[in-house]
Model the fold of this input.
Amino acid sequence: MAQTVGFAGWQLEDLLASVADQDRAAFAELYRRTAPKLYGIILRILGEPAKTDEAVQDAYVRIWRSAGGYDAGRGRPITWLATIARNIAIDRRRSELSRGAAQTVDFDLDLIAHRGGEGASSEDLAALRVCLERLDPEQRQMVISAYLGGESREELAERTGRPVGTIKSWLHRSLGQLRNCLGG
Done:
């Protein structure tokens, strides 16, 4: 707890700068502040807590090693951290897919409710379920695979045998339908 008090006024940028200098206490504080969010990002992509735990560890190893590469001029620190976490999760997901693991994502939307303190309300989740159900089943699966499972347009195209342009159009249209359905 004493460490937390020492970093009370520090921003994530400050912590990253100290982590770049191999400051273990700053790293512990960075982890404390950001782990729930990064865990949520990775869990949404991998879908399994055991796999997520390993990927979170890998993400923080990469953060420790590359903190000096953070450039505040290119974006917020949480965005940089989230990108590292997301990329690790996507790399792991792609590795699973290349080994012949399940090719579809059967995603539990309730996991969204547990992302690092920014959970969706039960009403929001219910509305999202209703709106997803209104999509064509194939397009719904593509939206879930792309935005929750981390698959790229190219991977979706290869898996479904459709052109990348078609996948891009379907995703764009599907997101528009979701936005309209959700009142946004």
